[in-house]
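Notes from hallway chat w/ T.B., transcribed later so I don't forget. T.B. wanted the structure written out for a chain they're using in a teaching module, and asked if we could keep both sequence and structure tokens in one place. Agreed to drop them here.
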Amino acid sequence: MCGAEVVSRVDAAWRALDAVLDPEVPALSVRDLGIVRDVIDHGDALEVVLTPTYSGCPATELIEKNVVDALVAAGLGPVRATTRRAPAWTTDWISDEGRRKLREYGIAPPAGGAVASAGEAPIRIVRHTADEVVACPRCGSTHTERLSAFGSTACKALWRCLACREPFEHFKPI
């Protein structure tokens, strides 16, 4: 086995989770979105700790099922998913790669940047103001306006670019 890379069960699980897409924003994996908090090897089973984007997220059960199914399909089972709601998920947990993927998908990412890990995310209160600047994910212009506080899901708002005239969704910072 000279030169072969030995990959731990936890590392293999993290890699497999890169392929599990968020059902509401399928441009992002559950890792990109930052809802996978931890993967723990208990010897007899893997535990995946998930934090939903908000407590009433209708996709929570589907995400749990998709995570468990992907890890079992990768030969890493048995697997159990645990939901942890505290600290609450924040858009700071979206990875830099996830923010790039959101822009490419046509959704303006939330302001701010990703934190090193979910455990380091600060608790903050976000105040939305009339002078909020959101760049168009299509042309990059900041000459935009909010049309509606809510888009296709509760975590997104509907905006329009006044430069290219295209509507787009903005992933709201929380």
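Follow-up for T.B.: DSSP finds four helices and seven strands in the chain. Might be a good example for the class.
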